[in-house]
Every structure is written in C-alpha cells, then in structure tokens.
Design a protein that fits this description.
The protein has 124 residues and is an alpha+beta fold. Helices cover 47% and strands 27% of the residues. Helix 1 crosses helix 3.
Length: 124
C-alpha cells in the first residue's frame, strides 16, 4: 500500500467566496449603522451633562428641553424625531428621557430597526 504524500490544504474557491460575501455584508451593516450609534452616544452624553448642570434643576419642562436642544445643536445632532425627549416630574426632581427608533435600509429588501432609550434624573 502506498502512503499519501500530499494532502489538500487551504481554502477552496467557494470558501473564499463565502468569506468575502460575509465580510461585505458585515462591512455594509457597520458602515450604515455606526453613525446612528454615534448619534445615540452623543445624545446620552448631552443628557448626562444636562442632568448634572445645576441650572437645569431650576427650569421647567420647556427650559430643560431647550437646554437639550441647544447642546444637541452644538454637537451637530439634528436627526432625532420630534417628541423623542420627555421630561416627567418625580418626587425628587425631574426625569429626562429619550426614546426613539431609527430604520435604516441596508440592501435589497432588508432593513435594520434600531431602538434607543435612556433616562437620567435631574435632582433639585
């Protein structure tokens, strides 16, 4: 009996093609969805800053929302839906919240739905 001297090593054409297709799919998703996550991180940062600002404790609902709008404008965030922010009175201060969803077309008939929510306490 003769021993095998060569064995097959490496990836096949179909394996490489599948890997490239998967990389393209993930790359497309990252490129299209990353800006929405960056916007959300900016919104969270603005909300935390407003909650820590002593000036926001003395303001009413409209005043707090104006502070948020001004800071979002400074940071270049203008794509949030109207009514995404809410200010509700609590026993000790106010609660500032954001809740919105974004739909992003990826390719073909495939869309991604991203939901974002965050709340902070504004202490008096």
């Amino acid at each position: 009996m003769q021993a095998r001297t060569r064995t097959q090593v490496g990836a096949s054409f179909w394996g490489i093609l599948f890997g490239l297709a998967l990389a393209a799919l993930l790359g497309t998703a990252v490129i299209k969805l990353a800006p929405h996550y960056m916007t959300y991180l900016t919104v969270k940062s603005v909300m935390n800053d407003v909650a820590e600002d002593p000036e926001s404790a003395d303001r009413g609902r409209r005043g707090v929302l104006d502070l948020v709008d001004k800071r979002l404008y400074i940071n270049g965030v203008a794509s949030l839906p109207k009514g995404a922010f809410s200010v509700t009175p609590q026993k000790r201060g106010k609660e500032l919240g954001v809740d919105y969803e974004v739909r992003e077309h990826l390719f073909g008939n495939l869309d991604a739905v991203l939901t974002f929510a965050h709340t902070v306490q504004i202490k008096e």
